[in-house]
Each structure stands twice: as structure tokens, then as C-alpha cells.
Amino acid sequence: MSDKECFKCGTVKPLSEFYKHLQMADGHLGKCKECAKADIIARRKANIEHYREYDRERAKRPERKAKILVYQQRRRSKDPEKCRAHRLLIYHVRAGNITRKPCEVCGKVHGVDGARVEGHHDDYSKPLDVRWLCFKHHRMEHGKYQDD
């Protein structure tokens, strides 16, 4: 058997489109990966406060702190110019040489109602030349945010 029907969407797909699940007769989950991901996203949205609290507590565990440190070191060594630009911008903001401006897209102001405005570098060789974007629009600029 190389194909299977998803019980959620009813589409027949190859087994590679289903997560493995050893307790199922054919060794694969009954819903396709796409439907499983959609269910997880919906569950997280419905219980967002629970998951935020879980994520905060999880980040405090020693093994998570160690993984975060390894990830940061790898990221910094992979792109030192980006890291340098980021550090330099933070230094000048804290020193008062540069002030954060409202988001260029929506106008949110940093620190008002929990808004976070970040500096976006179009060119890392110019570390103090930034566009100010809120968290959401900064992620959209990098293509890492989906607005549903």
C-alpha cells in the first residue's frame, strides 16, 4: 500500500505525506501532515495563554538554556557582520544617540501597550541606517510571518 486517504480532508495521498505512527495498522497517522499541522495551529490559537505560559516555563529549564546558548553562538559565528550591526545599534540606542521611531507601517510606538519596535537593516554594512518596524512587520519583511 503506497497511498492512503486522509480522514480529515478526504484526499488520497502517498504515505510520505502522513506522519509515522507505530500504533496504526499501516504504521502511519490517519490524517495527512497538512491537516495535522492545521490542527496544531488551531489548538495553539485557541489556547494561546496556556502555551505562552508553557513556553516561558520551558525556556527556564537548564537544558533549554544550554541549547539556546549553542544556537546563539552558531548564529553569531555564521554571520558576524549582522551580529556586529545589531550590537552597534543596541549600543547607540541605549547611549541615547539614536531614538526609536514608530513603526513605518502601522505607527505602533515602542513600549506603548506592549508594542516592540525593532530596527531593520537593509544593509548590514551600514549598522546605524535602519528602518523602524514593529515585531509583526519586521517578521513580514523577512518573510517569516503569516497573517491568518
Describe the structure.
The protein has 148 residues and is of the alpha+beta class. It has two domains: 44 residues, no CATH class; 61 residues, no CATH class. It is 45% helix and 16% strand. It contains five helices and six strands. Strands 1-2 form a two-stranded antiparallel ribbon. Strands 3-4 form a two-stranded antiparallel ribbon. Strands 5-6 form a two-stranded antiparallel sheet. Strand 3 and strand 4 form a beta hairpin. The model has no long low-confidence stretch (mean pLDDT 93).
Report the uncertain regions.
none
Shape by Cα distribution: elongated
Q: Helical region count? A: 5
Whole-number tally of structural domains: 2
Structural class: alpha+beta
Q: How would a textbook summarize the main sheet? A: 2 strands, antiparallel
User: What is the percent of helical residues?
Assistant: 40-55%
Strand line-up in the sheet with most strands: 1-2
Q: State the total count of DSSP E strands.
A: 6
Integer-rounded radius of gyration: 22 Å
Give the rounded overall mean pLDDT.
93
- What letter string, H or E per element, gives the SSE order? EEEEHHHHEEH
Beginning-to-end CA distance, first to last residue = 36 Å
Strand content: 15-25%
Topology of this structure?
Elements: E1 3-5, E2 12-14, E3 18-20, E4 28-32, H1 33-46, H2 48-59, H3 62-78, H4 80-95, E5 117-121, E6 130-134, H5 135-141
Antiparallel strand pairs: 1-2, 3-4, 5-6
